[in-house]
Design a protein that fits this description.
Blueprint (H helix, E strand, L loop, with lengths): L30 H13 L12 E5 L2 E4 L4 E4 L2 H4 L8 H13 L11 H13 L6 E6 L2 H16 L3 E5 L8 H6 L17 E4 L4 H4 L3 H15 L5 E6 L15 H12 L2 E5 L14 H4 L5 E4 L10 E6 H4 L15 H16 L2 H22 L3 E7 L2 E6 L9 H13 L2 E2 L1 E3 L5 E4 L7 H17 L1
Helix pairs in contact: 3-12, 4-12, 8-9, 13-15, 14-15
Bound molecules: ligand PLZ.
The site of ligand PLZ has 16 residues, from α5.
Length: about 450
């Protein structure tokens, strides 16, 4: 089956019916993608980069198809967004129905039921057996900004702690929360005040137990800020952009307990880890922590822009009427998509599929590691697994090797993303709609790329 219709030259429809194959009909980029990317260079600022040098025209299952008819294996899900699969039929249908009904009223002007249904679902699905409320926004960064606003209003305090290697967004407050300077912050300051940084638990590099790492962080917060001044700490249960860093057991519960004892709001940023990605509906569950507030986005709506803050009703209700909102927050089309995605998360075996994908990724990468000491660590949960590349003698991060492997894999038609404070981590975030064969083929290509590097 041709990927581009020969008669009409029309791009194929996306979704799970796309041929599930890696197929390169040109070098990347092919001539059509190259022409589109040349226009990008003229029309879009250089600051907006891209990882894969192709122009997408369709996607679904486990592939992304480009303008030249190349079909690439997708191990990135557009950064952990298309968890249920790109152009999922249930989402496409829900969106089409909503677009035909109404596209916008502004929830703050005339509310509609779907926003409330999304809030009810989030209140039910997030960890914590207490009354919760949810507010909806457009992006992960906007959810994080609002979680901080809510925590400050509730506590009457201003200081906020984020962690080494943490990533929370690119807006002014979230840049301040984000740890890494290049490329996220450099030259874009001054940053929002009253943001402090605490040391993370990074077992591969610090060798500390969770309890030791937590007492190091707590002692620093007590000395440098004082619990009385602290509104909130915000942390990703598994750090995403920072390198898929999984904290040692006990680290997160100890922090959460200290927060509870000191009236500090514990915010879990589950923008990347949320919605089945880790083989659990939320990654907090893995560590047995119940956050006061939780931020979500990405996977929540199958690719439509939607984000949320969910948490304890008494904290969420601290804000005066009119204090929270935005023109598009909880847009009806995004809410329709989210309700369809949540239906898939709850009823279509997606969590189990994330666990199966995690088992394949872990097994294959561990075998690779046993033969190649340049893979220093394999870690993660579910369909959120990473390999950290090092100099085997010194364990120093090897960013050039990492980017060579990623580039070679992409050239061979496998979309992979790197991450990590030191740029030495390849992360695997496949859509959960990918088949085993395609996933294994993608991993074969990674192994070839590593061997050649
Ligand atoms: N919190 C934990 O992972 C977004 C950003 C990629 P937005 N991560 C991908 C890039 O280079 O911009 C993210 C996240 C965590 C917050 C965010 C921000 O979410 O929807 O990108 O604003």
């Amino acid at each position: 089956m041709a990927l581009l219709d020969a008669a009409t030259d029309a791009p194929p429809l996306g979704g799970p019916d796309l041929p599930q194959e890696r197929r390169l009909v040109t070098e990347l980029p092919g001539p059509r993608s190259a022409a589109i990317l040349a226009r990008k260079a003229d029309a879009v600022p250089a600051g907006v980069g891209h990882t894969v040098p192709v122009a997408a025209v369709a996607a679904g299952g486990g592939v992304v198809v480009d303008a030249d008819g190349n079909s690439l294996i997708d191990l990135g899900s557009g950064i952990a967004v298309t968890t249920v699969g790109n152009a999922h039929p249930k989402i496409a249908a829900a969106v089409a129905a909503q677009v035909a009904q109404f596209t916008h009223t502004c929830f703050m002007i005339s509310p509609y039921e779907s926003y409330i249904e999304v809030a009810e679902a989030l209140n039910r699905l997030t960890p914590g057996d207490f009354d919760k409320k949810s507010a909806l926004f457009n992006s992960g960064a906007e959810a994080v900004e609002n979680a901080i606003k809510i925590a400050r209003k509730h506590t009457g305090r201003s200081a906020v702690v984020a962690f080494d290697h943490g990533y929370h967004g690119r807006t002014n407050l979230t840049m301040a929360l984000t740890a890494k300077s290049m490329p996220y912050k450099s030259g874009f300051g001054p940053f929002a005040p009253e943001v402090y940084r605490a040391p993370m638990s990074y077992p591969f590099r610090d060798g500390l137990t969770g309890a030791e790492a937590a007492s190091r962080a707590i002692s620093q917060m007590e000395k440098q800020i004082g619990a009385d001044n602290l509104a909130a700490i915000i942390i990703e249960p598994i750090q995403g952009e920072g390198g898929f860093i999984v904290p040692a057991d006990g680290f997160l519960p100890a922090l959460a307990e200290w927060c509870r004892a000191n009236g500090v709001v514990f915010i879990a940023d589950e923008v990347q880890t949320g919605f089945a990605r880790t083989g659990h509906m939320f990654a907090s569950e893995i560590f047995g922590v119940v956050p006061d507030l939780i931020t979500t986005a990405k996977g929540i709506a199958g690719g439509l822009p939607l984000a949320a803050v969910t948490g304890r009703a008494e904290i969420m209700d601290a804000s005066h009427a009119g204090g929270l909102g935005g023109t598009y927050g909880g847009n009806p089309i995004a809410c329709a998509a989210a309700l369809a995605a949540i239906d898939v998360f709850e009823n279509d075996g997606v969590i189990e599929r994330a666990q199966q994908i995690g088992a394949i990724l872990t097994e294959r990468l561990t075998v690779l590691q046993s033969k190649d000491p340049r893979i220093g660590d394999v870690r993660g949960h579910g369909a959120m697994i990473a390999a950290e590349f090092v100099n085997p003698e010194t364990m120093a991060p090897d960013a050039p090797l990492t980017s060579a492997v990623a580039k070679a894999a992409i050239a061979r038609g496998v979309i992979v993303l790197t991450c990590g404070t030191y740029g030495n981590v390849i992360r695997f975030l496949p859509p959960l709609s990918i088949g085993d064969d395609l996933l294994n083929e993608g991993l074969n290509v990674i192994a070839e790329a590593l061997a050649a590097a």
